[in-house]
Amino acid sequence: MQLGGKRVGIIGLGSIGFLVAKRLEAIGCSISYNSRKKKPSVPFPFYNNVCDLATNCDGLVLCCALTDQTLHMINKEVLFALGKERVIINIAWGAVIDEKELVQCLVEGEIAGAGLDVFENEPQVPQELFALDNVVMSPQFLFADSNHNAVYL
Fold this sequence. Notes:
By secondary structure, the protein is α/β, with parallel strands linked by helices. The protein has five helices and eight strands.
């Protein structure tokens, strides 16, 4: 799959999200975003609603803070809006995604895949993720112990 030319939605356009956006833009991606509020100095289209953003992009990159408002913000509704041909990448906080819903959507093919650098209950990682070929986890998670805890290097 080629990344250039894809429509990427970024959730959380703070300093990290903006750096991600600039790098993706440099390789030809079309960027749109959701954040607490629209940023007047940012040239990218703003979506007030996360479901609308998910519907209008090929993939979501999560870069937001974990707050009461963002806890489980990525739920079944958002994942279904993202759709079967699209992916989600979480470099924010694990609990931004409802992990049980994510696992179910990945297992059932409701989304194409996920790239995960964080997990909701670290060091616990859902056992099902290790068996899926549509999930990429950070290289620091080489294997899990007998309790399905991620073993960090």
